[in-house]
Specification:
Layout: H1 6-23, E1 28-31, E2 36-41, E3 67-69, E4 72-78, E5 85-92, E6 102-105, E7 116-119, E8 129-132, E9 145-153, E10 156-164, E11 173-174, E12 176-178, E13 180-189, E14 195-206, E15 211-214, E16 218-221, E17 227-231, E18 236-240, E19 250-255, E20 273-277, E21 282-291, E22 297-307, H2 312-315, E23 320-323, E24 337-340, E25 349-356
Parallel strand pairs: 2-14, 16-22
Antiparallel strand pairs: 1-4, 3-12, 4-10, 5-6, 5-13, 7-8, 9-10, 10-11, 13-14, 15-18, 17-20, 19-21, 21-22, 23-25, 24-25
The protein binds calcium ion (3 copies).
Length: 359
């Protein structure tokens, strides 16, 4: 039986222990980006970026995906004799379905043409389709392309995902990503095989309030029905948002002082209309509210004057709900009332207006 001499065994064990202890001490010290990066965006949506027929944001109803600057940088202080190896993998959810489908990483950067992203290449790279993200009116050499910017200040090295161009490869623009939840993983290693990673979950969302301008005031007259229904948009002069398009903004109204927050009806839906009747003749204040696709709100108030210039209120009684079994000629009218409208009634139970003959 062959035996390893005791001295050799001690040397072997010692060198193994020494090398593993050595390998566990990297010659660099990294500073990771935050593990959770919340980007609360209030900037206007850039029409030149992430804007093409392929894209669609169902919440904001636009092909112009809203975008915000994101600084994704890893910093490493190094005493290493050999250069550090640094790579990244960025996974983007560009269709907002909760799962990343777009992978941009150190190992595919060289394949990505300027102005394009490799959409739908994750998790199956074979499903790749190229999509335009840079539609700015510039020459092709000035289109943005994804890259890894590396800078050094003494022994402090900074690695940052950004955009540069073919015509100015040393000029870097801050990365702008569409709203959504994305992630980045950095991997950094030294020549001795020490490897460390940093992970960042990114959440980019709209924090910009919509802007809203109400009419200076509104004067209305009651209708022959002795009432008038007013819609939220009746009070609106204009509205806009940094992200949500005008036709995707939600409006609501309430009588001022009749609640707080965005006006909702009893079913929890936006309250779009107000009804004024004979009991409301006079001056009122109305709150008009707007809500963007991210839930940000604002409101303005409008003075409302309700009049009854045709004096419908003085010549009609209250609206009555009556059984129409006797509708028409057989309806037992009190002597002082007569029908307004055309009997016979269209349904078994019918709302009618009664005119007081004695007014
Ligand atoms: Ca955009
Ligand atoms: Ca997705
Ligand atoms: Ca907004």
């Amino acid at each position: 039986m062959n035996k390893i001499p005791t001295l050799c065994l001690a040397i072997l064990l010692g060198s193994t222990l020494f090398s593993s202890a050595f390998a566990q001490t990297p010659c660099f010290q990294k500073t990771c980006p935050p593990t959770e990066l919340d980007v609360c965006d209030q900037t206007d949506n850039d029409p030149g970026l992430w804007h093409y027929i392929d894209w669609w944001d169902p919440a904001a109803k636009t092909q112009n995906l809203a975008d915000a600057e994101v600084d994704l940088a890893l910093v490493a202080e190094t005493d290493c004799a050999e250069p550090l190896s640094v790579s990244f993998e960025m996974l983007l959810d560009l269709d907002g379905d909760g799962a990343p489908e777009t992978r941009i990483a150190s190992d595919n950067l060289a394949d990505i043409p300027a102005a394009y992203v490799p959409y739908n290449n994750y998790p199956d790279p074979a499903l790749l389709e190229w999509r335009v993200f840079d539609l700015r009116p510039v020459d092709p050499e000035a289109n943005y392309r994804f890259g890894l910017q590396t800078t050094a200040d003494g022994n402090v090295h900074t690695y940052r995902i950004g955009w540069n161009t073919e015509q100015a490869p040393d000029e870097w623009a801050t990365l702008q990503l569409p709203y959504g939840k994305h992630q980045v993983v950095w991997t950094i290693s030294d020549a001795d095989g020490n490897e460390e990673t940093c992970s960042t979950e990114i959440d980019i969302h709209d924090c910009g309030k919509p802007t809203l301008t109400c009419l200076n005031g509104l004067s209305v007259n009651l209708m022959p029905t002795r009432m008038i229904q007013l819609w939220d948009t009746d009070f609106l002069q204009n509205a806009a948002d940094n992200y949500t398009t005008l036709n995707a903004l939600t409006f609501g109204v309430r009588r001022a002082g009749d609640g707080s927050g965005f006006p909702l009806d009893s079913a929890g839906m936006p309250n779009h209309a107000l009804i004024y009747d004979c009991s409301d003749i006079g001056q009122h204040m109305v709150e008009l509210w707007v809500r963007d696709a991210a839930g940000n709100t604002d409101f303005c108030t409008v003075p409302l004057s309700v009049s009854d210039n045709s004096q419908y209120c003085s010549s009609y009684t209250k609206l009555l709900a009556i059984c129409t079994d006797y509708c028409g000629v057989n309806f037992p009218l009190k002597p002082s009332f007569s029908f307004v409208g055309q009997p016979p009634c269209p349904s078994a139970r019918h709302l009618v207006w009664l005119e007081r003959l004695d007014k």
